[in-house]
């Protein structure tokens, strides 16, 4: 049997990728009769002279972005690999499925998306549960650690701890990589840096849990929020693709600032389309961060251009803020598909 | 049970002495304790480390240097940062405490290229 995998090699995208990133389709792991950990170890064995972050992704499952938008392709396991090693206590995390229960929409309003066509009935994975986290303490993030590599935030924020480099691969970007779609690669910039902190309240979130809700900022760091991740490279979905995800949530009646995180992107799309925004539910601390990237209450209070869904998608590159210097790549330009004998 | 814990300076001396027990010319370097002015170490663990240093040197007469490195067992740690404003007379009218989450390179970085690793750490469960 051969295990198929995708690898983004160090240095691709004009040198922005600081170390290799590996993505494996869950079905390809299962086809080989391997456990997730065994699959990661096979990859580690293949690269005994290098270190990398690795994720296993279920393409038939859904997940949720930090600002509350649902999308296909969920990380079901992630790991840190270094010179053939996976730390036995902290190098691997399995992510358990979150079962559906009817009250989930009451507890977590953004989960109404799970009842929409295209998402309904699909398995949900967000962050690992306490059993998945193993020996990690309450203060530990959803992070795997082996040697140089930390793979954090459920496989979406990867670091080399010796070189002190880092790269972000948000879930919609991951989906594009796995679907052989297009991706934007560039330096994250101030808007993404602020947006990452504009979360929704959820149990077992990929990054945050219950402490902060829609309209609040988990970063809570005023003018400094825009610098937190601004200098790091990111691999994200093209803006029209991202806009489609957000529009699906907005068309379902979800409100930015109340049901969905008040990220600059969510706010920009909602305002462009004339969707309701709960401006009064956005906290002062969040407004400080938003205004630091030019996203002000005054601007959002102005009449909406009431653009159609099609117009928003067509003009997404102008409407959606963030990642200003990014270049558009076909996945095939930065991703190499490989396989190894198992 | 006054022998339950060992003073940090005593541990550092014991580690050096253990390294030189077989061959007095063996060099001993110790890293990971630099920021600690004082501490108490579990004496049973100190004894184990001493024995293990001697074990390494006695088993291989070619060893010229013992390197001891202490790193966190969990590479991601939560730490307290204490910030003090000191006046000319040395008094400190106010201090601020905050949290620092820190992730450092794991043990694999230090063990790269090592022939055999005998992992004798206590299990976490």
Secondary-structure element series of chain B = EHEEHEEEH
Largest sheet of chain B: 2 strands, antiparallel
Question: Looking at the structure, what is the overall shape of chain B?
Answer: globular
Count of helical regions of chain A: 14
Average the pLDDT over all residues of chain A and give the rounded result.
97
What Rg of chain A do the Cα atoms give?
19 Å
Q: Stretches of chain A where pLDDT falls below 50 for ≥5 residues? A: none
List how many beta strands of chain A DSSP finds. 14
Share of helical residues of chain B: 25-40%
Strand content of chain A: 15-25%
Relative helix content of chain A: 25-40%
Measured distance between first and last alpha carbons of chain A: 6 Å
> If you average the pLDDT of chain B, what whole number results?
95
Task: Calculate Rg of chain B over CA atoms.
Answer: 18 Å
Q: Would you give an account of this structure?
A:
The complex is a heterodimer of chains A (342) and B (125). Chain A has a domain at 2-179. In chain A, helix 8 (239-251) crosses helix 9 (264-273). The mean pLDDT of chain A is 97. In chain A, strand 3 (51-64) and strand 4 (70-82) form a beta hairpin. Chain A contains 14 helices and 14 strands. The longest helix of chain A has 13 residues, at 239-251. Chain A is α+β, with helices and mostly antiparallel strands and 342 residues long. Chain B is of the alpha+beta class. Chain B has two domains: 1-70, no CATH class; 72-109, no CATH class. Helix content of chain B is 28%, strand content 29%. Chain B is built from three helices and six strands. In chain B, helix 1 (8-20) packs parallel to helix 2 (43-59). The longest helix of chain B has 17 residues, at 43-59. Chain B is globular. The relative contact order of chain B is 0.15. The mean pLDDT of chain B is 95. The interface between A and B is medium-sized, with 21 and 15 residues.
